[in-house]
Amino acid sequence: MNVLGVYRPGNTVLHRLPAGVKFVAMGVVILVLSLAVRSLTALGIATAGVAAVYALAGIGPREAWRQLRPLVWLLVFIFAFQVVFTDWRRAVVICGVLALSVALAAVVSLTTRTTDMLDTIVRALGPLARFGIRVDLIALALALTIRAIPLMVEVVREVDEARKARGLRPGPRILVAPVVLAALRTADGFADTLTARGLD
């Protein structure tokens, strides 16, 4: 299965950029999207820009959709909420900015090895070690978080397939409870593993 944010080997410009540069660029672009995109026209321009980034990274439309598909139910919920309390244009803009932000984060993880990301984060947090902060434990927590993302995407897929097999209609209530229980079991498994290795 092709899961969210799994590194795809390549030799594009984005693949060759240092992880730190990509992190900073992603943060700046997401901040600009959040502050500057206020209309459907601006959202369309931003969407074209993100599509160009995917093209530059050699990632096709099918792969891009696989990155956003796990977000669909959340976007539907946010859209409905915004339509009720604002209007449909505002709802489209908010959901669009959220989807573009996730797409940018996905393209960074698709073009950056996990080890490179963690090394960059550890170096950036290095000065905190002077104050007694365990940077290595922060790196471990980040590694577990990154590992949990594809696991949870797989869980959502399995729950949805079970729903289809039982002939149930899609809906948040049908999906949320099993996914939350699976997430808690995964967290317990991580905790047991860390405890077994002497980490509290």
TrEMBL record:
Could you tell me the keywords of this UniProt record? Membrane, Transmembrane, Transmembrane helix
One GO CC annotation, please? plasma membrane
* One Pfam family it belongs to: CbiQ
Q: Which residues cross the membrane?
A: 23-56, 68-85, 91-110
What top-level branch of life does the organism fall under? Bacteria
Compartments, as annotated in UniProt: Membrane
Q: What is its main location?
A: membrane
Topology of this chain in the membrane: Multi-pass membrane protein
Answer yes or no on keyword Transmembrane: yes
Protein name listed in UniProt: Cobalt ABC transporter
Q: Which organism is it from?
A: Gordonia lacunae
